[in-house]
Design brief:
The protein has 370 residues and is α/β, with parallel strands linked by helices. It is built from 15 helices and 16 strands. β10, α7 and β11 form a beta-alpha-beta unit. The relative contact order is 0.13.
């Protein structure tokens, strides 16, 4: 079975849309937030808890799984779904972003990327064909073509060369891809330069991928540059294919991205900030580790109906965090993921109802939608 996508509703103004992605492991209702399970595990969360909060798809990291435990282990376990006991959707990235972040430990050529493992310093080479082969062995529902992600700021000439290299790699990835039950997405690059984003999007659209990632954003650039680049990418991608804004995951970014026609998001932010005691709420973020919450016996978010907010207080969670108890990190992680998934459901419901305004001011109302 191959992946299919359809738009079921459009906002009355702007480019927001609600859709459905059908995969071999279930239906994904878009717009959607994908929790990140870097090493085959969403930090602090069990698969049972992810199902409980309503996650329909998660993201796993090709680079990390390739290095540890190794592709052969996952393949011999029956694929990533069986290995981690997650039988809903999985998207795997190509490893391009992680390899790019190694800086002095890697070298990029037109053939691919040579890099040293951050674990033991061993040498490896990742070509477009190898990136596809790894993801086919992992068995995700959606795989990503290998790309070169350039951090901001960067010279325009280098960004142009990296974008065109990414385009050539996309061709090679598509030629190498064989699994009919796995969709391969191309990735738009081009930094903060609108004309390069347009060139990249048009070239990838001509290749007719089943979906498209938009990479290389939220890597240090000002927000207005990100949004302009995003608009130029979306404007030249097919209307009948899902669009995935990679690595972007604040509530405000969801609103801005959906308003511009994005369907899929992922980010490590909700679990990362949870480990430092920060919780998302309808009224904004709170740092529950702070002394102000030592005797606050209200829930993390009075507007939230998640299991954490129904049963635990800010004071108790602060105590756990200050005492170094793992439960504190798990409770805030659970709440943050629930909050973002519920927010995305609220956005989707408002699009279907014709009430989506696309303003960050409506986050409080949207995240309260059931």
């Amino acid at each position: 079975m191959s992946m299919t996508f359809r738009v079921v509703a459009r906002a009355s103004r702007g480019f927001a849309r609600a859709g459905e992605i059908v995969t071999p492991h279930g239906i994904i209702r878009t717009p959607v937030f994908m929790p990140v399970g870097t090493q085959g595990s969403v930090k602090g969360m069990s698969p049972e808890e992810l199902r409980e909060i309503g996650a329909e798809i998660i993201l796993a990291n090709t680079y990390h799984l390739y290095l540890r435990p190794g592709v052969e282990v996952v393949r011999d376990a029956g694929g990533l779904h069986s290995f981690m006991d997650w039988h809903r959707g999985i998207l795997t990235d190509s490893g391009g972003f992680q390899v790019a972040s190694l800086a002095d430990l890697r070298s990029v050529t037109n053939d691919g990327v040579e890099f040293r493992s951050h674990i033991d310093g061993s040498r490896h080479f990742l070509s477009p064909e190898k990136a596809v082969a790894i993801q086919e062995a992992l068995g995700a529902d959606i795989a990503m073509a290998l790309d070169e992600c350039v951090r901001y700021p960067a010279d325009r000439g280098y960004v142009r060369d990296a974008m065109r290299r990414t385009t050539e790699w996309a061709k090679r990835c598509k030629a190498a891809h064989r699994r009919e039950d796995q969709a391969l997405f191309g990735i738009v690059q081009g930094g903060v330069f609108p004309d390069l984003r347009e060139e990249s999007a048009k070239a990838l659209a001509d290749m007719d991928f089943p979906g498209y990632g938009i990479g290389g954003l939220s890597v240090g650039e000002p927000k207005e540059f990100m949004l302009e680049a995003l608009e130029h990418a979306c404007a030249h991608l097919p209307e009948d294919k899902p669009r995935y804004l990679m690595g972007v995951g604040t509530p405000e970014d969801f609103i801005e991205g959906v308003s511009r026609g994005v369907d899929m998001f992922d980010c490590v932010l909700p679990t990362r900030v949870a480990r430092h005691g920060t919780a998302f709420t309808a009224a904004g973020r709170i740092i529950v580790r702070d002394a102000a919450y030592a005797r606050d016996f209200s829930p993390l978010d009075p507007a939230c109906d998640c299991r954490v907010c129904r049963n635990y207080t800010r004071a108790y969670i602060r105590h756990l965090l200050k005492a170094g108890e793992m439960l504190g990190l798990r409770l805030v992680s659970y709440h943050n993921l629930y909050f973002l998934i519920r927010l995305m459901r609220g956005i989707r419901a408002s699009i279907v109802a014709g009430a989506f305004k696309g303003t960050v001011q409506e986050i409080g109302d949207l995240c309260g939608s059931k």
